[in-house]
Structures are given as C-alpha cells and as structure tokens.
Amino acid sequence: MLKSFLFCIPLLWVAPPVAAADYPARPIRLIVNFPAAGPLDIEARAIAQHAGQLLGQTIVVENRSGASGNIGAQAVAQAAPDGYTLLMTLDTVMTVNPHIFKGLDRDVTGRLTPVSLAGTFGMTLVARPDLGVTTLGEFLQYAKTHPITYASAGSGSPGNLAFEKLRLAVGVQAAHIPYRGNAPAVNALLGDQIQVGFLATPGVLAQIKAGKLRALAVAGNTRDPDLPDVPTVGQSGVKALEGYDATFGYLVMAPKDTPQEVVKVWEEVLARVYALPEFQQTMAGLGVRGPFAGTERAKDWVLREGGGWSAVIAGAGIRGE
Q1: Identical topology for domains 26-121+247-316 and 127-241
Q2: SS3 for 129-153, per residue?
Q3: Hey, which end of the chain has fewer CB within 10 Å, N or C?
C-alpha cells in the first residue's frame, strides 16, 4: 500500500496538458531579463502588443534584470511549463553565461528551450577622435606602442566578448573597463576616460555622425546599413581578422517542458508579428536586423554561438559579475 501511494504522489503535481485550441485562456507574462527602455525591452513590448492582438489575450511585459540576465532567466526556468510565462533575452544568457557562471546550465539554461530567434543587432568599434586613428589597422598599430583601455556594457557583455575576440586574434594588450550598460560606457568615451569600445551601434550612431566618436569597424560579417561606409572587422585588411564575426541576437524562450502544441502556437504567431510592416519599421529604428526565425533556427543559433564563444571566454579569462 505504501509503495503504491508513493508511486502516485508525483502524479498529483503533474500539470494537466495544455491543448492548443484552448491556449491562451488567460494573460501571459513575457519576462525581459534586462532593464526597461533598451532595444530588448522595446522589442518585447512591440511583440507583446502585436502578439496579444493576434492571440486575443493580454501579454504583460515584466522587467527582471540583474546578474547578466540570469535573474529573469531563472524566473522563467522555474515557472510552470504551460506557455503562460515566457522569456525575452539577449542570446548571451544561453551562449555565454553557462561558460562563466558555475552551475547555470543545470539550474537555468538547461531548463529553458528556444522558441524563436527575434533578430540580431550590430556593434561598432568606436574610438575617441583625439587618438588620431581612422581605421582599425591604424588603431592596432597605435595599440602596439600605447596603453589601451576599452569600455563595454559589462563583463561578459557583447562588447567585452567582441573586443576580446579581436584582441586575442591580433595579440594586442588592453585593459577592460566594464560599465553598467551601454549608455555609461558611451559617456566614459565622450568624457575622455576610455579610448575605445565595441558598443551597440544605435547607442553611438548620433555621436559618430556628429564627429564626437570615430567608427573604425563593425563587428558583424556584413556592413551595417546605418554605417555603409564603415568596413567590417573582417574587411580591415588584417589577415588574422579575416572571417571575424561577432553578431549577437535576441531570443524568445519558454520553460523546457512547455507542450509542443503551445510552442508551435508561439512560433506561428511570432512569424506573423515579424512580417508586420509596423513591427519591421520599429526594429529598423532600433538597429535590430534579421534573421527573425523559428524554433529550429533558434536552437541551431544557440548551439553554434555557444560553441564559438567558449574559446574566447577561456582565452580571455572572462568571469561573470
């Protein structure tokens, strides 16, 4: 009798299956694991607005920032896998953080599943004009004979990773000065506290056009439409940097055991949102580019990018804050 009772206990905690035809029957939470008002948050709110209309249900955006995105990610990882709690995140939570935060794959990232790849964003290597360099090649020559400090939006941030990937490839020395976000890093550059930085392009575009910062190269493998005259790092003419690419993306995630029928609902709804001209216009204004893709592409992205950054993290000794 006791054995039979123990065997039945787990069944009491199993959530009833969610039928796609009944979903969603109540409001949905979309947790953003970085602060409000940034591109990730703005995209999440655009998705919430349009997807809510398509689903006929309210989608509430909730910001839970901190610990390089881990706090918000953990909240979703621990949520019921029923499709009523989703995560909007920078891909580094899945591709970088497991390499720098011990146990994260067991407690957080291993309990999440990608639903969609919600676009990518570009970064630009910018320098103070008073350095007197106009190209990446000139900067690398300068760095051989001058002490260099570079800014980023934090340890393990895209800017930190992109610069360390470059630094390791060419063998220059540089001191990393992390800031709490893109805006403080830009302010440090403008205040002559730091010399260079790989920063999100929308956050430095106005300063580049005003001549307050000089764009040396963009981090992706294609030129940025907002900076068509600025070459990619791979186009710099430096042999060690041929093929260089540091592209980062946004992901929509769900708790791991979310029913496939519900994941499919979101995959289809997001595809319709991405196709809306109004949404595309908003994303273009944020500097968010393609690809916007479904579950399989998102899973492939996480697998590929995670493997690519592990060597950079180890070589640079990057640690989580």
Answers
A1: yes
A2: HHHCCCCHHHHHHHHHHCCCEEEEC
A3: N
Domain boundaries, the chain: 26-121+247-316, 127-241
How far is the C-alpha of 233 from the C-alpha of 173, rounded, in Å?
18
Distance CA 142, CA 9 (A): 68
Architecture of domain 26-121+247-316: 3-Layer(aba) Sandwich (3.40)
CB within 8 Å of 239: residues ≥ 6 apart: none
The whole-angstrom distance between residue 157's C-alpha and the CA centroid of its chain comes to 9
How many Cβ atoms from other residues are within 10 Å of residue 249's Cβ? 24
Do the bridges between strand 112-121 and strand 248-255 make them parallel or antiparallel, or are there none, so unpaired? antiparallel
Reported as type and span, the H/E element at residue 3 is helix 2-8
As assigned by CATH, the class of the 127-241 domain is alpha beta
Q: Strand order of the sheet with strand 288-293?
A: 59-63, 28-32, 85-90, 248-255, 112-121, 288-293
Residues 197-207, mean pLDDT to the nearest whole number: 94
Tell me how far apart the alpha carbons of residues 111 and 81 are, in angstroms, rounded to a whole number: 10
pLDDT score at 105: 86
Q: Tens of pLDDT along 147-156?
A: 999 999 889 9
